[in-house]
Amino acid sequence: MSNQQWSSKLGFVLAAAGSAIGLGAIWKFPYMAGSNGGSIFLIFFILFTVLIAGPILLAEFVIGRRGKKDAISTFKKLAPSTPWPIIGILGTVVAIIILSFYSVVGGWILSYLARSATGGLSNLTQAQYGSLFESIIANPIEVLGAQMIFMLITIIIVSGGIQNGIEKASTFMMPALLILFVVLAIRSLTLEGASEGIAYLFIPDWSYFTAKTMLLALGQSFFALSVGVSVMITYASYLTDRDNLGRSTISVATLNIIISILASLVIFPAVFALGFEPGEGPGLVFVVLPAVFNELAFGGIFMFVFLVLLLFATLTSAFSILEIVVASFSRGQDRKRTKYTWLAGALIFVVGIPSALSFGVLTDITIMNYLIFDFADYITASFGLPLGALLICLFIGFQLKKEDVYEELQKGAGVKAKWMPVWYYAIKILAPLAILLIFLQSFEIIKF
């Protein structure tokens, strides 16, 4: 059994929030919302976070602390001689795929950070910012080199363990990121023409009320909270019985929604004020934000600080994803943690090479009409995570004894008794039905 443990409740919440907030809120949410109707996507995202992803996050906390092992071993312990450990295996595989393309984006951030430090992002036109991004992601040597550096940083931190590595880094990174985003949102909202962006984000366009938008918003709520991939099962396995799972769930989900909205308030007013398209795609942050900083006094300094903090946010997500793979490989053998961290990190880097090259030398290779990078993103967010979340719901609702689940919820002055049946109903009935319904719609088996 592993001796890894969080040193404080705050450290756990910030690390879990760091996993959730990271690129999910800052990079992915704005471009997903921008490509799928803005306000409608936001409404579905909040609704699914509160009603489905949030309760599943709590379910993962319950399973993780109950098992106190890596994800695969936890399911073996709680449901011996059953097929349920497939959830942990699925989570590990999905984690490898997610970090394989996440690390590519981390590399993009490092490339921008290097240019920012040398003045290479200053005084460009809007068109030049777009051209710069396209040239960076198409350069095979630069993207692979930057991806490798990003993975090396992630490996070094995670090999340090929970308290000395992940928790210490997250406790500094997350508050700094939140403060800067508030400053950036205020500046973006004061740009001339920003009101169109606010309208896009908060006034619904009902033409986007579709099964596809619902599926993508559901996938984003899972992606943003890191549920369905057993990351939070792994993190919760390092908790003590004194920790309040319900309060931690609310804190992580609330922080995630706040940062997602803040990121959108930074980006969408600027998108419309500066004449960009909201459906810019994965490059939205890299094309629009440099142009926003160009409008600021001392914009070059702000841009550098922002990129450092964006790198921090990306790393906190990467820590959590690599941790589940390392925990699954090492199975509590702390003495071999460093070796398994390097093995897992090297494997993920290799898996990510096609994604890194998919905007350049492999741009002609597509899967289901998606570039390799986009396919890895789509298949994990729209299918891997919801499937994992569905199986976790079924495990809580039909495998674990209700009294054992309630016992875990009540530890550490936990969830109030009157709310437990509501949550249990949501996990056993509401969440599985919602996931299945949206799956059926996405495959056009049913329509409404």
UniProtKB/TrEMBL annotation:
Keyword Manganese: no
Topology in membrane: Multi-pass membrane protein
Matching PROSITE patterns: NA_NEUROTRAN_SYMP_3
CDD domains in the cross-refs: SLC6sbd_Tyt1-Like (cd10336)
Compartment annotation: Membrane
Entry GO CC: membrane
Listed transmembrane segments: 40-63, 84-110, 143-162, 174-194, 214-238, 250-276, 296-329, 341-372, 378-401, 422-443
Keyword annotations of the record: Membrane, Transmembrane, Transmembrane helix, Transport
Cross-referenced Pfam families: SNF
Protein's name in the database: Sodium-dependent transporter
Provenance organism: Jeotgalibacillus proteolyticus
